[in-house]
Amino acid sequence: MPIHALVWCYHSLIHSSLLVIKSIAMLSVNFNPRKLSDYSFYILLPVLAAWLPLFLLSIDLPIMPLITTTEERLFTIFGFCMWCVLLIVAYQQIKTNPGTSLEKAVVLLLPILTSFFFLILVVEYTGRSFDYEVYEHAFQAIAQDNNPYKGSFYYYPPLFAQVMAYIYKTGKALLDPEILSWQLFMFYIHQCLQFFLCNLAYQLSSRFASRLGFSDLKNKLIITGLFLFNFPLIRTLHLNQINFSKSRIQSLSASL
Question: Distance of alpha carbon 202 from its chain centroid, rounded?
Fold first, then answer.
């Protein structure tokens, strides 16, 4: 790949990472980057909710749900932890806006309800698709210093596979395979990223609508409708596809 293309790819990764840091989780309406408490609500809590299931699974507490497979246990706990975060964020939004009108309440709570919809899709669609197996083959090949495009259906830019290869190497070195396999760990990380990127795409779309001159209420109603009644999005999550990380974030970043 030409040097300028690699530079562009890594610049895009850094830019997307900054966007995720600014709006990773709960689609905050009034996120203030100068307030430390906002980082706790909108960044630290979601990251903790994603890390906690891995920790609880590793220590095998008796409070763990008695479900048949390790995969179901992991995603059930993730769903519960992230649901708790959504409740906390909803409470914080209502508490900081006392006496709000019905219109304002809709503007505040619609993004959180949409985030809950994303959470249901991510938690329920935990079967690894053929598309994901292709990505898995690609990042394993890169981790082993092989060509990810040889003998594979991986036709995407290498950046995604390179990032996943780094996570793969780190996870494989740290994980106890008797508790959590590297395959499940990588799939869990992939699904968490899908959830966060769905939220990020929603917020960027809302910002774009705001710049087009839509009022807050029309903005949230239109964007929520586009994301709820969106078969390609549901198919993307169902088939574990990387459309969000591959193209949507870059195209929507123009709204910033």
Answer: 11
Distance CA 52, CA 67 (A): 18
Alpha carbon distance 157, 99 (integer Å)? 50
Give the tens place of pLDDT for each residue, 66-116: 667 888 888 989 999 999 999 988 888 888 777 777 788 888 889 999 999
CA distance 236 to 243: 7
Per DSSP, the three-state class of 241 is coil
Model pTM? 0.78
DSSP-derived secondary structure letter, 26: S
* 78-92 core/surface letters (b: 16 or more CB in 10 A; e: else): bbebbeebbeebbeb
Are 185 and 171 in contact, with CB atoms under 8 Å apart? yes
What is the C-alpha to C-alpha distance for residues 189 and 169, in angstroms, rounded to an integer?
A: 13
